[in-house]
Design a protein that fits this description.
3 helices; alpha+beta
């Protein structure tokens, strides 16, 4: 995120033409960067969900094994 902040410091205000209105508006670069970041996180979570759906049984099996190992470790302490 600090990389984005460096960019934002360089260009604080950007002018863009709003397609809905005739006048040009100014938007803070930081706001667009946060929008990008939000979108990126959303896409990332969607990817993670798809991955989980595809490999659910493998992941659950791994978790079961980990839990079993942990239980054994606690019992034999």
């Amino acid at each position: 995120m600090c990389f984005y902040m460096e960019i934002a410091k360089k260009q604080v205000v950007r002018v863009y033409k709003d397609p809905k209105s005739t006048q040009k508006r100014e938007i803070l670069a930081i706001a667009t960067l946060f929008q990008h970041e939000k979108h990126r996180k959303k896409m990332q979570s969607a990817r993670n969900k798809r991955y989980y759906q595809r490999h659910k049984d493998k992941i659950l099996e791994k978790q079961r094994l980990k839990n079993k190992l942990y239980e054994d470790f606690i019992q034999h302490r």
